[in-house]
Amino acid sequence: MLPFQKPLTLHEVALSTYPIGLECRRCVRRTLLQAEDLGARLNDHRSLTEAGHRCRCGSTDFEVEHFATPSKARGWMRTV
Hints:
The chain is of the alpha+beta class. It contains three helices and three strands. The relative contact order is 0.28. The mean pLDDT is 87.
């Protein structure tokens, strides 16, 4: 995340039509998550870290990707 960007909130995830992509900065694991996977609800303005989301390695430091189409999400998963 760039210094001027604010962290993604659960509210924004709940509004997403397609899954969001998370890439762990420690172990470089990638995953696609739907709002239901994270328990995201409208008007929940906690960040993913504040909500307790962690990678399997235990890290809370990850890059977040938003996708405009399902094919973009699939392509992102293939480019590991």
